[in-house]
Amino acid sequence: MRVAVVGATGFQGGAVARLLTERDHRVRTLSRRPQGDRPPLPGVSCATGDLGDAEAVRQLFTGATHAAVVMPLVYEAKRVRAYARNIADAAVEAGVRRLVYNANTRVPRTATDVAAFETRRIAEEELRESGVPLVVLRPPVYLDNLFSPWNGPALVNEGILAYPLPADVPAAWLSHRDLAHAVYAALTVPGLAGRTYDIGGARSLTGDELAEEFGKGLGRAVRYRALAPHVFEQGLAQAIGPAGAAGVAGIYHHMAAGRDPLLLAGDDGLSAGELSVTPAQVDEWVARQPWQIWASDPEERGAQTLT
Protein backbone atom coordinates (compact mmCIF):
# COMPACT_ATOMS: atom_id res chain seq x y z
CA MET A 1 0.00 0.00 0.00
CA ARG A 2 0.95 3.65 -0.45
CA VAL A 3 -0.66 5.25 2.59
CA ALA A 4 -1.33 8.91 3.32
CA VAL A 5 -1.27 9.09 7.13
CA VAL A 6 -2.79 12.29 8.48
CA GLY A 7 -1.46 12.81 12.00
CA ALA A 8 1.70 10.68 11.74
CA THR A 9 3.71 13.20 13.79
CA GLY A 10 1.34 12.67 16.74
CA PHE A 11 1.05 9.73 19.10
CA GLN A 12 -1.84 7.79 17.52
CA GLY A 13 -0.94 8.51 13.90
CA GLY A 14 2.71 7.85 14.70
CA ALA A 15 1.89 4.36 15.98
CA VAL A 16 0.00 3.68 12.74
CA ALA A 17 2.87 4.98 10.60
CA ARG A 18 5.41 2.83 12.45
CA LEU A 19 3.35 -0.34 11.99
CA LEU A 20 2.86 0.38 8.29
CA THR A 21 6.58 0.92 7.68
CA GLU A 22 7.44 -2.20 9.70
CA ARG A 23 5.28 -4.12 7.22
CA ASP A 24 7.03 -2.49 4.25
CA HIS A 25 4.25 -0.17 3.12
CA ARG A 26 5.07 3.31 1.84
CA VAL A 27 3.92 6.13 4.12
CA ARG A 28 3.59 9.85 3.52
CA THR A 29 2.40 12.53 5.91
CA LEU A 30 2.04 16.28 6.34
CA SER A 31 3.17 18.48 9.21
CA ARG A 32 3.05 22.17 10.06
CA ARG A 33 6.24 21.82 12.10
CA PRO A 34 9.62 22.66 10.54
CA GLN A 35 11.66 19.58 9.76
CA GLY A 36 13.94 20.00 12.78
CA ASP A 37 10.99 20.08 15.20
CA ARG A 38 9.34 16.87 14.01
CA PRO A 39 9.65 13.57 15.88
CA PRO A 40 11.79 10.98 14.07
CA LEU A 41 9.71 8.86 11.71
CA PRO A 42 12.02 6.35 9.99
CA GLY A 43 10.75 5.35 6.57
CA VAL A 44 8.08 8.06 6.46
CA SER A 45 8.10 10.82 3.85
CA CYS A 46 6.99 14.08 5.47
CA ALA A 47 6.11 17.31 3.67
CA THR A 48 5.53 20.68 5.29
CA GLY A 49 1.96 21.88 5.03
CA ASP A 50 -1.36 22.44 6.76
CA LEU A 51 -4.67 20.59 6.53
CA GLY A 52 -6.31 23.93 5.81
CA ASP A 53 -4.34 24.18 2.57
CA ALA A 54 -6.28 22.19 -0.03
CA GLU A 55 -3.34 22.03 -2.43
CA ALA A 56 -0.97 20.69 0.25
CA VAL A 57 -3.49 18.00 1.15
CA ARG A 58 -4.01 17.14 -2.52
CA GLN A 59 -0.26 16.66 -2.94
CA LEU A 60 -0.14 14.44 0.13
CA PHE A 61 -2.77 12.16 -1.37
CA THR A 62 -1.38 12.10 -4.91
CA GLY A 63 -0.50 8.48 -5.68
CA ALA A 64 -1.93 7.16 -2.40
CA THR A 65 -3.84 3.88 -2.51
CA HIS A 66 -5.04 4.08 1.11
CA ALA A 67 -5.30 6.63 3.91
CA ALA A 68 -5.38 6.70 7.71
CA VAL A 69 -6.65 9.90 9.31
CA VAL A 70 -6.72 11.31 12.83
CA MET A 71 -7.53 14.97 13.32
CA PRO A 72 -5.23 17.32 15.25
CA LEU A 73 -6.30 18.68 18.64
CA VAL A 74 -8.45 21.35 17.07
CA TYR A 75 -12.02 21.77 18.28
CA GLU A 76 -13.38 24.64 16.19
CA ALA A 77 -16.21 23.29 14.05
CA LYS A 78 -15.48 25.50 11.02
CA ARG A 79 -11.80 24.57 10.91
CA VAL A 80 -12.41 20.86 11.41
CA ARG A 81 -15.03 20.83 8.66
CA ALA A 82 -12.58 22.54 6.28
CA TYR A 83 -9.85 20.03 7.17
CA ALA A 84 -12.18 17.08 6.61
CA ARG A 85 -13.45 18.48 3.33
CA ASN A 86 -9.91 18.96 2.02
CA ILE A 87 -9.04 15.40 3.01
CA ALA A 88 -12.20 13.99 1.45
CA ASP A 89 -11.74 15.87 -1.82
CA ALA A 90 -8.10 14.79 -2.08
CA ALA A 91 -8.92 11.16 -1.30
CA VAL A 92 -11.67 11.04 -3.93
CA GLU A 93 -9.44 12.68 -6.54
CA ALA A 94 -6.62 10.22 -5.81
CA GLY A 95 -8.97 7.25 -6.05
CA VAL A 96 -8.11 6.03 -2.56
CA ARG A 97 -9.37 2.47 -2.15
CA ARG A 98 -10.07 2.83 1.55
CA LEU A 99 -9.78 5.57 4.16
CA VAL A 100 -9.72 4.73 7.87
CA TYR A 101 -10.80 7.57 10.13
CA ASN A 102 -9.79 7.37 13.78
CA ALA A 103 -12.22 9.64 15.62
CA ASN A 104 -9.83 9.46 18.61
CA THR A 105 -12.83 9.19 20.93
CA ARG A 106 -16.17 7.52 21.21
CA VAL A 107 -19.01 9.66 19.84
CA PRO A 108 -22.42 9.68 21.58
CA ARG A 109 -25.43 8.67 19.52
CA THR A 110 -27.15 12.03 19.98
CA ALA A 111 -25.74 15.54 19.67
CA THR A 112 -24.09 17.13 22.71
CA ASP A 113 -22.58 20.47 23.63
CA VAL A 114 -19.09 18.89 23.81
CA ALA A 115 -16.77 20.14 21.05
CA ALA A 116 -14.54 17.05 21.31
CA PHE A 117 -17.47 14.88 20.26
CA GLU A 118 -19.21 17.17 17.80
CA THR A 119 -16.16 18.19 15.77
CA ARG A 120 -15.25 14.52 15.34
CA ARG A 121 -18.83 13.85 14.27
CA ILE A 122 -18.52 16.67 11.72
CA ALA A 123 -15.33 15.20 10.29
CA GLU A 124 -16.92 11.77 10.00
CA GLU A 125 -19.95 13.20 8.22
CA GLU A 126 -17.79 15.09 5.70
CA LEU A 127 -15.73 12.01 4.92
CA ARG A 128 -18.76 9.77 4.61
CA GLU A 129 -20.69 12.18 2.38
CA SER A 130 -17.74 12.36 -0.04
CA GLY A 131 -18.30 8.74 -1.09
CA VAL A 132 -14.72 7.66 -0.33
CA PRO A 133 -14.68 4.01 0.91
CA LEU A 134 -14.62 4.68 4.65
CA VAL A 135 -14.10 2.73 7.87
CA VAL A 136 -14.55 4.62 11.15
CA LEU A 137 -12.83 3.61 14.37
CA ARG A 138 -13.95 5.13 17.67
CA PRO A 139 -11.51 4.21 20.45
CA PRO A 140 -12.26 4.77 24.14
CA VAL A 141 -9.21 6.01 26.10
CA TYR A 142 -5.52 5.18 25.72
CA LEU A 143 -3.30 3.31 28.16
CA ASP A 144 -0.41 5.38 26.85
CA ASN A 145 -2.02 8.44 28.47
CA LEU A 146 -0.96 6.87 31.77
CA PHE A 147 2.67 6.30 30.77
CA SER A 148 3.52 9.95 31.11
CA PRO A 149 5.36 12.42 33.37
CA TRP A 150 1.95 13.27 34.88
CA ASN A 151 1.19 9.70 36.00
CA GLY A 152 4.50 7.83 36.11
CA PRO A 153 6.04 9.33 39.27
CA ALA A 154 2.91 8.88 41.40
CA LEU A 155 2.46 5.33 40.14
CA VAL A 156 6.05 4.24 40.74
CA ASN A 157 6.75 6.11 43.97
CA GLU A 158 3.32 6.24 45.67
CA GLY A 159 1.21 3.54 44.03
CA ILE A 160 -1.42 6.09 42.97
CA LEU A 161 -3.14 5.95 39.58
CA ALA A 162 -4.91 9.27 39.01
CA TYR A 163 -7.11 9.93 36.00
CA PRO A 164 -10.10 12.22 35.30
CA LEU A 165 -12.72 9.48 35.08
CA PRO A 166 -15.11 8.60 37.90
CA ALA A 167 -14.04 5.44 39.68
CA ASP A 168 -17.24 3.59 38.71
CA VAL A 169 -17.08 4.37 34.97
CA PRO A 170 -16.09 1.30 32.92
CA ALA A 171 -13.63 1.93 30.10
CA ALA A 172 -12.10 -0.44 27.54
CA TRP A 173 -8.57 0.95 27.76
CA LEU A 174 -6.52 0.51 24.56
CA SER A 175 -2.83 1.00 23.76
CA HIS A 176 -1.58 3.03 20.82
CA ARG A 177 0.00 -0.13 19.43
CA ASP A 178 -3.29 -2.02 19.54
CA LEU A 179 -4.98 0.97 17.93
CA ALA A 180 -2.44 0.75 15.10
CA HIS A 181 -3.25 -2.94 14.60
CA ALA A 182 -6.96 -2.06 14.43
CA VAL A 183 -6.27 0.65 11.85
CA TYR A 184 -4.17 -1.76 9.81
CA ALA A 185 -6.97 -4.33 9.85
CA ALA A 186 -9.50 -1.67 8.87
CA LEU A 187 -7.28 -0.77 5.91
CA THR A 188 -6.85 -4.34 4.70
CA VAL A 189 -9.67 -6.69 5.74
CA PRO A 190 -12.11 -7.11 2.83
CA GLY A 191 -15.69 -5.96 3.09
CA LEU A 192 -15.41 -3.38 5.87
CA ALA A 193 -16.12 -0.19 3.90
CA GLY A 194 -19.03 1.70 5.42
CA ARG A 195 -18.59 0.18 8.88
CA THR A 196 -18.08 1.94 12.22
CA TYR A 197 -16.35 0.20 15.13
CA ASP A 198 -16.27 1.14 18.81
CA ILE A 199 -12.90 -0.51 19.30
CA GLY A 200 -11.46 -1.08 22.77
CA GLY A 201 -9.28 -3.23 24.97
CA ALA A 202 -9.78 -6.82 26.02
CA ARG A 203 -12.42 -5.88 28.62
CA SER A 204 -13.98 -2.90 30.34
CA LEU A 205 -12.46 -1.84 33.67
CA THR A 206 -13.64 0.53 36.38
CA GLY A 207 -11.04 2.70 38.10
CA ASP A 208 -10.45 0.18 40.91
CA GLU A 209 -10.21 -2.70 38.42
CA LEU A 210 -7.74 -0.70 36.33
CA ALA A 211 -5.62 -0.07 39.44
CA GLU A 212 -5.68 -3.81 40.19
CA GLU A 213 -4.35 -4.59 36.70
CA PHE A 214 -1.65 -1.95 37.10
CA GLY A 215 -0.75 -3.51 40.42
CA LYS A 216 -0.27 -6.88 38.74
CA GLY A 217 1.92 -5.36 36.04
CA LEU A 218 4.00 -3.29 38.45
CA GLY A 219 4.22 -5.93 41.17
CA ARG A 220 2.98 -3.56 43.87
CA ALA A 221 -0.24 -2.26 45.37
CA VAL A 222 -1.90 0.48 43.31
CA ARG A 223 -5.00 2.48 44.17
CA TYR A 224 -7.14 4.56 41.87
CA ARG A 225 -7.83 8.24 42.44
CA ALA A 226 -10.45 10.03 40.34
CA LEU A 227 -8.91 13.32 39.28
CA ALA A 228 -11.20 16.35 38.96
CA PRO A 229 -11.56 17.22 35.25
CA HIS A 230 -10.75 20.90 35.84
CA VAL A 231 -7.48 19.93 37.55
CA PHE A 232 -6.63 17.68 34.61
CA GLU A 233 -7.47 20.50 32.19
CA GLN A 234 -5.22 22.97 34.00
CA GLY A 235 -2.28 20.58 33.86
CA LEU A 236 -2.86 19.68 30.23
CA ALA A 237 -3.02 23.36 29.24
CA GLN A 238 0.63 23.71 30.19
CA ALA A 239 1.53 21.10 27.58
CA ILE A 240 -0.83 21.80 24.66
CA GLY A 241 -2.32 25.22 25.40
CA PRO A 242 -5.69 26.21 26.87
CA ALA A 243 -7.77 25.71 23.71
CA GLY A 244 -6.60 22.17 23.07
CA ALA A 245 -6.81 21.30 26.75
CA ALA A 246 -10.39 22.58 26.97
CA GLY A 247 -11.31 20.43 23.96
CA VAL A 248 -9.78 17.26 25.37
CA ALA A 249 -11.10 17.88 28.89
CA GLY A 250 -14.62 18.30 27.55
CA ILE A 251 -14.80 14.50 27.27
CA TYR A 252 -13.97 14.09 30.96
CA HIS A 253 -16.33 16.84 32.09
CA HIS A 254 -19.04 14.98 30.16
CA MET A 255 -18.19 11.66 31.79
CA ALA A 256 -17.96 13.20 35.27
CA ALA A 257 -21.49 14.57 34.83
CA GLY A 258 -22.74 10.99 34.40
CA ARG A 259 -24.48 11.75 31.11
CA ASP A 260 -23.38 8.59 29.30
CA PRO A 261 -21.66 6.26 31.78
CA LEU A 262 -21.17 3.41 29.28
CA LEU A 263 -19.78 5.57 26.48
CA LEU A 264 -16.20 4.31 26.96
CA ALA A 265 -17.09 0.70 27.67
CA GLY A 266 -16.27 -2.24 25.43
CA ASP A 267 -18.58 -4.01 22.96
CA ASP A 268 -18.00 -7.56 24.23
CA GLY A 269 -15.26 -8.17 21.67
CA LEU A 270 -17.44 -7.61 18.57
CA SER A 271 -15.13 -5.07 16.94
CA ALA A 272 -11.97 -7.00 17.79
CA GLY A 273 -13.50 -10.13 16.31
CA GLU A 274 -14.52 -8.50 13.03
CA LEU A 275 -11.12 -6.81 12.73
CA SER A 276 -9.28 -10.01 13.73
CA VAL A 277 -7.20 -8.20 16.35
CA THR A 278 -6.42 -9.24 19.92
CA PRO A 279 -5.74 -6.27 22.22
CA ALA A 280 -3.18 -6.84 24.95
CA GLN A 281 -4.29 -7.46 28.51
CA VAL A 282 -3.74 -4.35 30.64
CA ASP A 283 -1.37 -6.02 33.12
CA GLU A 284 0.75 -7.34 30.24
CA TRP A 285 0.96 -3.89 28.68
CA VAL A 286 1.91 -2.36 32.03
CA ALA A 287 4.66 -4.93 32.59
CA ARG A 288 6.29 -4.00 29.26
CA GLN A 289 6.68 -0.28 30.04
CA PRO A 290 9.89 1.14 31.60
CA TRP A 291 8.12 2.75 34.57
CA GLN A 292 11.29 3.01 36.64
CA ILE A 293 12.46 6.04 34.65
CA TRP A 294 10.23 7.96 37.10
CA ALA A 295 11.54 6.27 40.25
CA SER A 296 12.66 8.70 42.95
CA ASP A 297 15.42 6.29 43.99
CA PRO A 298 18.46 6.69 41.65
CA GLU A 299 19.43 3.04 42.20
CA GLU A 300 16.01 1.90 40.93
CA ARG A 301 16.39 4.08 37.82
CA GLY A 302 19.86 2.65 37.22
CA ALA A 303 18.64 -0.93 37.61
CA GLN A 304 15.95 -0.30 35.03
CA THR A 305 18.52 1.11 32.61
CA LEU A 306 20.82 -1.89 33.05
CA THR A 307 18.01 -4.35 32.37
UniProtKB/TrEMBL annotation:
Domain NmrA-like, first and last residues per copy: 2-236
Species this protein is from: Streptomyces lavendofoliae
InterPro entries: NAD(P)-bd_dom_sf (IPR036291), NmrA-like (IPR008030), NmrA-like_oxidored (IPR051164)
Signal peptide: none
UniProt keyword annotations, A-Z: NADP
Protein's UniProt name: NmrA-like domain-containing protein
Superkingdom to which the source organism belongs: Bacteria
Family indicated by similarity: Belongs to the NmrA-type oxidoreductase family.
